[in-house]
Amino acid sequence: MAIRFIIFLGIWCIFDGVKPMGLVAGLITAGLVTWSSLKLFPTSATRFRVFPFLALALHFMRSSIVAALEVAKYAFRRQPGLHPGFVTYDCGIPAGTKRDLYLSMVSLMPGSLPVGVDENGRVLIHCLDIEQPIAEQMADDEARLIRTWEESPK
Description:
Blueprint: H1 2-16, H2 20-40, E1 46-48, H3 50-76, E2 85-89, H4 97-107, E3 112-117, E4 123-127, H5 134-146, E5 149-151
Antiparallel strand pairs: 1-5, 2-4, 3-4
């Protein structure tokens, strides 16, 4: 809780500076925002890991560029040779905020878009080319995202 408060107060100080009256307003605002964030996102046993996150961010940027170039290649061909369709992926992350985060990340990748969940709980993905190794890429991205958090011992 204290860490959230300090982060929110730090953000306030970045935008408003450290002025006596501004700091009073910042303390009140940081308190209210901390209370709201705890109601919306309660603390959990999960800890954020910085270095795996940075590795994920670099991988994501590289993969986005490669996928965008691949989509552009298809767009400029006379006969694109696409095989659009749907692929199902058995996501190992249980339904909830973490899975939503994962699916949001995947939706930003050019060429594939999670569109729902089938009757068996598998993620349904629309792809421009189902002959690509979509499930393997999804599994790799999922593993990278999971490494960005760890469960704290109780």
